[in-house]
Amino acid sequence: MISDDDLHRLAIFLGSCAMMMIVLYHFLEVNAKDDEVDNTAAEKKSGSAATGPSAVPAAAAGGSSAIGVSAAK
Fold this sequence. Notes:
The protein is an all-alpha fold. The protein folds into two domains: 1-32; 34-73, no CATH class. It is built from four helices and no strands. The N and C termini lie far apart (70 Å).
């Protein structure tokens, strides 16, 4: 059977791993590139209009992309 000391070590180890995973997730989330920037650059190259399918999610999410700002003016 597992002793109290082994259970304590296991709890400390798993808790530490969970905290490291949370910190890693937030680090990756903060430093991730936005999809809106990539979509805007692709639309400028292709010359598509502001009524494309990518304009709807950006406006619905309340994001401020180049398409959403120009449509609001």
